[in-house]
User: Which sequence fits this backbone?
């Protein structure tokens, strides 16, 4: 057993291998074992050629290991090898169960550390030009899980639909119909929606619409998980849409002006 068995829970960022912190890279370089998730960019493992790399990723209905098994592996490898890094997509404390792993490790006498990551809930919309807040448009944003531990849509979606905030939903593609129904109940049929799949990676795909038609657009574009759903007026700022809305505004101004046709 090592004198100071340690767990470091590290955020890998949203997918782009350059969107990782220097502290995270240095922690990878110091690891003896890396337990990594499905959504991390495998290029990041190149920072740790000295470590053993073990895939423990979980995807929808496909879990290589249960969370309890992962917790046990953390302790086992830390006691046997020393420093274990738990490499998780985005930020480990945003729907990443990082706090659970930290608590379990501490109960078993491990030293622990957390290295925050750039969360996909902010970075992915930003990568397509969507600001989650904008002066005069959105004063706040909600980040909500689309699928709770009970496999249901979070009740917070209904609360968020009644606000003027930008709403960001993670892990919600399987619940898109329910999300649309809730926003429609509150008269939000014309609210813009952007959906970004595999955000910040070379495989990124996106589509845009409104609450009224987004299900059809998703079907036409064949988008699926993993994806982030962004709902709110700020979606109009997306790179793919900005020129469209600017032209619409300019046309309206021309028609309504004394010099218009």
Assistant:
């Amino acid at each position: 057993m090592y004198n100071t068995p340690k767990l470091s829970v590290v955020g890998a960022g949203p997918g782009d291998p350059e969107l990782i912190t220097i502290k995270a890279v240095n922690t990878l370089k110091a690891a003896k074992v890396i337990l990594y998730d499905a959504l991390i960019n495998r290029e990041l493992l190149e920072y740790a050629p000295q470590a053993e790399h073990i895939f423990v990723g979980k995807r929808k209905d496909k879990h290589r290991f249960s969370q309890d098994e992962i917790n046990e592996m953390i302790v086992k490898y830390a006691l046997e090898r020393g420093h274990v890094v738990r490499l998780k997509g985005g930020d480990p404390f945003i729907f990443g169960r990082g706090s659970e792993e930290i608590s379990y490790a501490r109960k078993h006498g491990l030293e622990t550390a957390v290295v925050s990551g750039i969360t996909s809930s902010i970075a992915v919309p930003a990568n397509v030009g969507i600001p989650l807040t904008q002066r005069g448009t959105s004063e706040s944003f909600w980040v909500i899980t689309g699928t709770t531990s009970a496999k249901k849509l979070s009740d917070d979606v209904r609360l968020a639909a009644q606000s003027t905030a930008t709403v960001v939903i993670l892990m919600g593609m399987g619940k898109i119909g329910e999300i649309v129904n809730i926003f429609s109940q509150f008269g939000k049929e014309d609210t813009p929606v952007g959906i970004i799949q595999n955000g910040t990676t070379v495989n990124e795909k996106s589509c845009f619409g409104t609450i009224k038609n987004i299900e059809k657009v998703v079907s036409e574009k064949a988008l699926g998980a993993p994806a982030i759903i962004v709902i709110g007026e700020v979606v109009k700022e997306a790179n793919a849409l900005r020129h469209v809305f600017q032209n619409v505004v300019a046309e309206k101004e021309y028609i309504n002006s004394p010099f218009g046709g």
